[in-house]
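Chain X:
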Amino acid sequence: MIQIDGLSFRYPRGNNDAISNLSLRVRHGSLFGLLGPNGSGKTTLISILIGLLPSPPGRVQIEGISLQARRPETRSFSALVPQDYAFYPRLSIAENLAFFAGVLAIPAAETGVRIQEALSVSGLEPHHGTRAERLSGGLKRRLNLAIGLLNRPRLLFLDEPTVGIDPQSRHFILKAIRRINSQGTTVVYTSHNMEEVESLCDEIGVLDNGRLLVQGTLEQLLGGSESKQLVVGLASTLTAEQCKALAAWPGLEVAGSELRVAQCSAADFQHLMALLATHGLKPSRVKYGYGNLEQLFLHLTGHRLRD
């Protein structure tokens, strides 16, 4: 569905590239998780793909055709559901949907059917006459989603679609997204909720400083890094002599009877296990690798605050 080759983009007054030599593939029918810290380039990339920002010739293709050549067509079969509320508060749900159906130039003969489809998928039928300003946070998120579904998109961009809502609303929206994807829509999903991305997405890409750091399935990302986190729980507390023996190990942190190495290659792992045995230290538990996406994300992008 999306093919990007060596894409770079700099804003007119920018000192650095917002996107730098980025190459990325999103296959047809994927539910693709696009992750990155604040300022990593996610919004810029989505803005290029949705046609809000210009793309360099030949660098971006949608369904095999240059985005430059087919930008008007791309807008007709793609949709963006933004993080901010994108509707008129003083209009009802039905009035908002009718207005945006007009903006999208949906034929009058189809408008009623499209609105009913959007209401059904988002579960908004019982509230269709309610003014948007009176809706709960969860219902507002669902109205955002419903507006994005009016043109029956083949390519749907979702930017933090569950931020700030209760668990029941989040569950409903995630279930709706799975159903939309299962019916053939390619979904590009951005979120800071790593558990959502783990449970929802079949492939994940991590951006930082405008560059793609990794891309793959969750299993590939958690198991494919050459340098992994190592945590060793020891059966006994270290003696002074044992502490001295381990002190020279690069990056080793000792906290009571627990050892941690933030970046440990497979060879280093074997050497450290041998060193522990030499000094009579018996592990009670060993965790090697990244147990979840958040750990991997912090390893790749660092712990420095971005706001």
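Chain Y:
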Amino acid sequence: MSTLEDPFFFKAGALRLEGRLHLAPGPEAVVITHPHPLYGGELDNPVVAVLADGYQRLGYSTLRFNFRGVGASEGAYDDGGGELDDLRAATEFLAGQGKRVTELAGYSFGAWINLRLGPPLATVRRLLLVAPPVAYLEFDAIPPVSAEPVVIVGDRDSFAPLDLLRQRMTSWHPAGRLHVLPGADHFYAGALDRLAHLVEAVLT
């Protein structure tokens, strides 16, 4: 866990969710979401940690959290429905801290959740989507989004094949951007340092 973050809990309806919070002096904030809860996804995932670190270096307040039923978060997996409520609760918590959530960042399942948040948050201007699993989860029915999607994917990612990803991106936003990390698979094994450099380059 980053030394810049504090462990804490916040409420999502009747549930108590576990999170890691970093409050920066400035107003801008990001919520970071993790991979699939049923396959080991949680807030301390290495890619999620890379995203948190990248935003913190740029002066953002960051909140990464465990979806319901993961780690010390109460509740149970809800097939993406309740997880949308968890995401909205996280953004509302940051707003209650006087922060403006201008970014949503998600990895794999987390990217799917962030894209599906509706109604969208008016303050969010960018969606950082790492390895959205378009060959695994249902992305067909996602309506266009108002925030700019910025996608990072490895060219060896079988869950997010480039041809299918490019097709899906055209329906999300006409100005969406795609950044390909050569030699990386869905899990960024051996590629976390290069991912961190790319994330920083994309965000700046």
